[in-house]
Write a structure and sequence with these properties.
The chain contains three helices and two strands; from the N terminus they run αβαβα. The chain is mostly helical and 71 residues long. Strands 1-2 form a two-stranded antiparallel sheet. Helix 2 packs parallel to helix 3. The longest helix has 18 residues.
């Protein structure tokens, strides 16, 4: 059924480094909206977290898009 298809996948719980995801998302939106600027300071030291890297990309994309739409 459609409701089974529309359900969120079960999040993974695995260690990953957040830095490249932050850089990827910021690069995606940095020049997308004229008149707005996006500045992200990613430390050189790895930010190690446990979670779902794909879900983190989705979360950060939604966060940035919400900020763009709110301006």
């Amino acid at each position: 059924s459609f409701s089974a298809f529309a359900q969120m996948p079960v999040p993974e719980r695995k260690p990953f480094v957040l830095n490249p995801i932050l850089e990827k998302v910021s690069d995606l939106y940095r020049h997308q909206t004229p008149g707005l600027s996006l500045s992200v300071e990613v430390p050189e030291a790895p930010i190690e977290v446990i979670g779902d890297p794909g879900l983190m990309v989705n979360i950060l994309n939604n966060l940035v898009l919400n900020g763009i739409q709110a301006t």
